Amino acid sequence: MKLVFELSKQGRASALLPECDVPEALPDAAFRRAEAPALPEVAEVDLDRHYNGLADEAFGVCNGFYPLGSCTMKYNPRINEEVSALPGFSDIHPLQPEGTVQGALEAMATACDLLAEITGMDAVTLQPAAGAQGEFTGLLLIRAYHKAAGDDARTKIIVPDSAHGTNPATASMAGFDTVNVPSNESGGVDLEALRAAVGPDTAGLMLTNPNTLGLFDPNIIEICSIVHEAGGLCYYDGANLNPIMGIARPGDMGFDCVHLNLHKTFSTPHGGGGPGSGPVGCKAHLKDFLPAPIVEKRDGAYALVNPERSIGRMKSFYGNFGVAIRALAYILALGKDGIPEAARTAVLNANYLMSKLEDRYAIPFAGPCMHEFVMDIGPLKEETGASALDVAKRFLDFGMHPPTMYFPLIVHEALMVEPTETESRETLDAAAEAFLAIWDEAHDNAEALHNAPLTTRIGRPDEVRAARNPVVRWMPDARDFGGSDGAKR
Question: Beta-strand (E) ranges in 200-246?
Answer without folding.
Answer: 202-207, 233-238
